Amino acid sequence: MADKDDQSKWNATRMPDLSGRTAVVTGANSGIGLVTADVLARAGAHVVFAVRDLERGRAAAGTVTGSTEVRRLDLADLSSVREFAGSWNGPLDLLVNNAGVMMLPQQRTKDGFEMQFGTNHLGHFALTNLLLPYVTDRVVTVSSGAHRWGDGRIHFDDLNSTADYDPRRAYGQSKLANLLFTLELQRRLTEAGSSVRALAAHPGYAATNLQSHADNPVARAFMRLGNRVLAQDDKAGALPTLYAATQDLPGASYVGPDGLGEMRGAPALVGRTAAASDPVTARRLWTASEELTGTAFPLVPAGSEGGSAGV
């Protein structure tokens, strides 16, 4: 017999009816992105798979029950981000910034950014700002407990990790950036008088193919072992994202597993480092990201000239 506490914890069977709603999920062709898209579609949402590889995206969408479509989006190419956003029409209830790369050998995006920072943060930063006029409910960005890694700070003097590249530190910086982005996005939404909410989530230690691209073979071997012994599956790993996407939570909330070390468990509100909660750093990162991507927050403050731009 199931434990009473287990029965009381939130899971995908408690999803609300999402009929008539539209969601975009980046990186929806595999892992927690595919699970997220599948659960949203089964709950009645029309889900757009925003993926780099259309063939893989169509194959993944074919496994999903519900209303789906597949559109190309390469977060490592700002022209692709602009093309995706420029083709959008109509309301977008939910944007899930899920796609990511992890602990790669040193690489650059098409625009010359360090690949992890450029994909995980800057690509989603640009996408969100360009789509925000259409968003009606919320933006959920997938971060990680890795925001605590390394020295746990944003290296404004070397955002592209050109000096002494460390794939682990670069990944940690990109995940810290996800949380700071969420914090500042929520501040700006509130200032604009918008009802849209910005939230973040992390999957804990979820067994996905994300870990297979680590530069160091020893790290890859360790993560393969961890996937077998410690990790929860991708279905459980997607629960914090789904919880953040559908439950009535305050803006800037951060959701993760409630188990030991936040590695596994049911979704719950979790903590973050002081660096991830610093509004001054969040604003500084936002300004730097605007300059790097050529995109800006599209809404004006409530009560300013031109009126409120709530969406």
Task: Walk me through this protein's architecture.
By secondary structure, this protein is of the alpha/beta class. Helices cover about 35% and strands about 15% of the residues. It has ten helices and eight strands. The protein has helices at about 5-10, 30-40, 55-60, 80-85, 115-130, 165-190, 215-230, 235, 240-245, 280-295, and strands at about 20-25, 45-50, 70, 90-95, 135-140, 195-200, 255, 265-270. Strands 3-2-1-4-5-6-7-8 form an eight-stranded mixed beta sheet, sandwiched between helices. α6 (about 165-190) links the parallel β5 and β6 (about 195-200). α5 (about 115-130) packs parallel to α6 and α5 (about 115-130) crosses α10. The longest helix has 25 residues, at about 165-190. About 50% of the residues are buried. Mean pLDDT is about 90; it is low at about 305-310.
How is the secondary structure organized here?
Layout: H1 4-8, E1 22-26, H2 31-42, E2 46-51, H3 54-61, E3 68-72, H4 78-86, E4 92-97, H5 115-131, E5 135-142, H6 167-191, E6 197-201, H7 217-229, H8 234-237, H9 239-246, E7 254-257, E8 267-269, H10 279-293
Short description:
With 311 residues, the protein is of the alpha/beta class.
Beta strand count: 8
The strand line-up of the biggest sheet is 3-2-1-4-5-6-7-8
Pattern of helices and strands: HEHEHEHEHEHEHHHEEH
What portion of residues is helical?
Answer: 25-40%
Indicate the overall shape: globular
Q: Mind summarizing the main beta sheet?
A: 8 strands, mixed
Task: Output mean pLDDT.
Answer: 91
Our Rg estimate from Cα atoms comes to 18 Å
**Percent of residues in beta strands?**
5-15%
Measure the end-to-end span. 47 Å
Multimeric state of these chains?
A: single chain
Unreliable stretches covering 5 or more consecutive residues: 307-311
SS-derived structural category: alpha/beta
Number of helical elements: 10
